[in-house]
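Run log, item B.
One chain of 371 residues. Sequence copied directly from the ordering sheet:
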Amino acid sequence: MKEFKDKLKEELRQDAPFTNDIKQRILQKKPIKRKFNWQVVTVSIAACFIIGLMLFVEFSQKNNLQTASQQNELLPIVDDVSSLDIIQPKYAHLLGKQWMLHFLPMIIDKEAPITYGDYIAFYGTDGLVVSTVLGLGNDHVTMKQGQILVEDTPLKVHGLNEQIKKEDINDPLKNPYFFHNFGTRPAPFNDKSISAKEKEMVVYDSDEGHTIMKISEGQLVGKVVGFQNFELTFELSEQEQQVFDAFKEDYNIEKLKNMTPQAITKMFLLSDIEKDYETYEALFTTNKNEETESVRRHYEKTKIVRQELFTKEINRLIIANLFAGLEHAEFEQQTDTTGVVKFISLEGPIELGMEKNAQGIWQPAFSRGIY
């Protein structure tokens, strides 16, 4: 019996490590299982989604405001308009680089989507007009010293994202509203805030000052998508071209002695188209009187605008429209030194002043208006 007990003790000692391991595992604290609150998680995810959506919408709106007119700011000049809708508005407030085309026939699309900076045609109290879109449905739009804010975000179209400084009001290169003044004095900025409803838009208005106004969807005619092209109807004859080329070599006015007033008028306008200011000024009358000096001052005042804002293509288009019919012009001498080149334009009768210099050569005494 004693031997059996000793043998059993020995076996128990050998099993002790295993027994201790089991004991340690039994005594070890079990990790506490935490309950997952799915309601809290769902709310958190929803909150993150809403915040993300709000940031996306805000970013998208600001991005649209900043880039609305950068995609295609210049509208095309279209040759064949026979199958298109053409309008001739009573007046057009075109903010932006194509402001000088405000008097041309415009192409409209009645179904095209409209965004910030677009030109739209609508019926106002004065009839059919065109203006620039500054706000869409449900927008809150503010004009403050020329700056346009949409929901407090500056509208980065046509240079309207900054206030116009007082010292820049008379600068045509720094004031985008400069060419929409009525009269010789700059119009004031009539600051205003407008909240548009869902089917309303906010547009630029210049009634007794630069301001903004609302129009309804019912007034809308369509979006302006282009301008009608015009080709020159007049040209120099072969002999006139030879004389003109010779004149440009040294600007000797005597070379024009046998040219008609009509031919010299065409040379004058062709120089204008090409932005050849040296030739243009060499052709202008050398006579000095109250009328010619007034024309000269106008030209000098607007020269920087011609140089910086008018392209040769724009010049050609405008002159082709304004002086269509010049090829049939007649000359009427009114005094010993004055006369007019007369023709019927697209808008009606036109008379262009001419002055005869001391050498008996007729010279232009007019300057094309540019705004």
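Observations after the first pass:
- The chain has two domains: 77-228, 238-364.
- Residues 50 and 162 are 32 Å apart (CA to CA).
Flagged for discussion on Thursday.
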